[in-house]
Structures are given as structure tokens and as C-alpha cells.
Amino acid sequence: MGSMRNFAVPLIFMLAAIGAEPIAAQGFKPSRPIEFVVHTGPGGGNDVLARAIVNVVEKEKLLPVRMQVLNKTGGGGLTAMAYLVEKKGETHTIGLFANTWFTVPAMRAEARVTMADLTPVVRLVVEPAVVAVKSDAPYRTLREFTDAAKAAPGQLKQSGGSIGSRDWVMRQLLMRESGANWAFISFPGGGERIAALLGGHVNIMVIEPQEAGEHIRAGNMRVIAQVAERRLAPFPNVPTLREAGFNVPNYAVMRGVVAPPGVPAEVIAYWEDFFQRVAQSASWKKYLADNLFEDGFQRGPELAKFVQQFPVEIRNILIDAGVKPAR
User: Vertex 47, ends 45 and 48: CA angle to 5°?
Assistant: First the structure.
């Protein structure tokens, strides 16, 4: 009996060790470079934010491997989304979503992927925007621009991203509310949109402050309205859309992180914790303040609620803009 007791002790430790091994194996730590997928070209909103995140991660030494931005342009986000869906179960690929990842599938019946096919990780920021013209443009206010567009239907031009992007949706809302009509010229990258404005090829653009910042500071652009709930600190004398007399929704851009489908729960938990560390870092907080972003961090149940409710808000905004949702 004593020999059995002596055998039982090491057996207990062996069983404990065997039982502990799966627990240790459940932990995830990146072991190779991370693909960070964005749907815009260089200089576009998602590209700019993704590269800012990479800079913060490197500065704060938050990741044991490199994070590489991968531009998958086309389809207003559908190409990037499809790429992530194809990466089912891949633990070293994530994507940076924006509103278009909700709006474009809602507008296109032929879209084969939606946000429901991906795995939400976190929401990061809420972005206001500004309406800008070239500094020597004749329009001092948005009303002056819409009046000019009304007098010459289809002659004035706006540079922007894809159909379904925030700048496109704002154009639809403003045209419907003002009775004016102007052309929309789509460019894959933010740099090209800005170049078109500064080169005099288009007349106006709706742009995130961080994309336009240096040009505004250099005096190459003039801000004539703000797509925001309240005036941003750098533009105290520029009215919001509602203050300027335009009864349209304030359409903020939400940006956050998703993973491919079929990714293990422990991997999602790792990325949730990782991006929470990013959001709490001094470098990130400075970036948000410098670029006039709002901290929109959400994870877990709060994020799940957002992902459920935001498509409904998007659908209502599209209807306000005169667009019949496809789903």
C-alpha cells in the first residue's frame, strides 16, 4: 500500500504537468511579421492611420515582430475584406476597417463579403473631417460653393475616395439638401486627391484633418466647414455643417481592427490586449491630440454592440443621401 502511495505522488505531478501543457499552449505570441491590411493607397486615411500605429508600436516596443502595412486597394474596401476572408484562421494577419467596410457592402448587392464575415478585434478612433478648398479659391463658405454648383450643374468637381466613402456620402447628403450638383472624381490614394485639389483640377474635398494638416498650415488649403459635432480647436472661426445652415447628419468615420474569420479566441484576446496597450501609450495619445481624433477605443461586449448597431446607422444615412441600400 505504501508503495502505491509513493507511486501515486509522482503520478499526480505527471498528470498535473500533462494537464498544464494545453493551458500553456493556449497562449499566443506573434512569431513572424504581421500583415496589417488597409484598403486605401498611400496617403489615404486608413493607410496614414495604419502607418501611425506602426510608428507607435515601434517607438513603444509593443510587438516582438515587425508590423507591415499591406495596401489592398479596390472595391471601396471589398478587395481588402475579401483578402482577409481568404486568410481564414491566419493568426498573423489583421486589417484596419473604416466606414466603407460597412457602406459598400450595404450598397452593392453583388458584394460577397461583409463585416459579418470578419472577426472584430477593437475600435480605435472616431474621426471628424473638414471641407477644404484651394487657398485661392473664390469660395469663402460652403454655401458659396453650393450656390456656385447650383448655378453650373455638374461643372464643379470634388476629389475623393471610393463610392461609399465618407467624402462621397457627404457629397450626396449636401447635394440633396442644397439642390446643387457637382461631379465626384475618385482617387485610390489621399495624396492624389490632395494633388488634384492643389493643382486646380478639382474645386473641393472632404478630408480628414491629419491628411490635410500640413497643407492647411502651409496656407495651400482653406477650410470652409467642419464635419464635426463641435468646432475643432485649430478652426475656431469655421462653422460646422449645421452651423453653416446644412441640415445633414454629422458623419464621423470609425476606424478599428478586424481579424480573418476562424481565428482562435486566444489570438483575438492577444490582439485586444495589444491594441489596448497601444491606445494607452503616451505616443498614441499624442498622435490623437495632434491629429484631432477622438479616442473611440472599444473591445468585447461594447465593440459587439457597435458592430451590431453601426450598420443600422449607416443604412439610415444612405437613405438620407438618396441611396437605396442593397441589403
Answer: 65
